[in-house]
Amino acid sequence: MSDICCRTHCNNTPAPNRKSCRRCLDRSIAYNKKQVTAGYSFYQITKNNGLCTSCGKVPPESGTMCASCHTRILGNAKNFRNRIKTILYDHYGRSCECCGENNLKFLSIDHINNDGNLQRLQFKGQEKLFTHVAKQIASGIAPTDLRVLCHNCNFGRQHNGGICPHKDLPN
Questions:
Q1: Contact, 164 vs 157, CB < 8 A?
Q2: Residue 92's Cα: distance from chain center in Å?
């Protein structure tokens, strides 16, 4: 950190872990309150002032969030994805329909009609699509065009004209 306040070059010592002195920080906070009433978002204000865009307190090491907020938000997202996967696998099954693989780390949701790209475009991403499907399952109207395949069968089906290589093998 610098020995001089960077905001106005007022020659005051910066506050601990900050680029500005306490007086300039107080001015900045007052200015930010005016910005909030003028329609600026919390995110814009904290980002413009080099603060964490989630908590607004700790200056970020890199990016727009401090390490603790970044870890917390990533953890929440991972938990959310795991809950959605659990709902989908509970409904569609916990093993590959083709080869019987049952390790959840190898399983994926397959679009039977090969229209997954169209559905992802409609919902603007895989996360939102599967969240929508999970809501449909909860309301009792689950789509019938989905199934569980392992990644090998799903990939093999994609590159073998819609037929899994397991089914294509001679007996």
A1: yes
A2: 24
3-state secondary structure 26-82: HHHHHHHHHHHHCCCCHHHHHHHCCCCCCCCCCCCCCCCCCHHHHHHHHHHHHHHHH
Half-sphere exposure of residue 124, counting CA atoms within 13 Å on the CB side? 0
Its pTM stands at 0.59
pLDDT digits (tens, 9 = 90+) for 21-70: 767 766 666 566 665 555 567 777 777 778 888 777 777 667 788 888 88
Cα(133)–Cα(90) distance, integer angstroms:
13
Half-sphere exposure of 17 (CA within 13 A, CB side): 8
Q: The tokens of 102 are what?
A: 């049952």
* Rounded-to-integer distance, Cα 94 and Cα 157, Å: 19
For 127-144, the pLDDT digits (tens) are 677 888 888 888 888 888
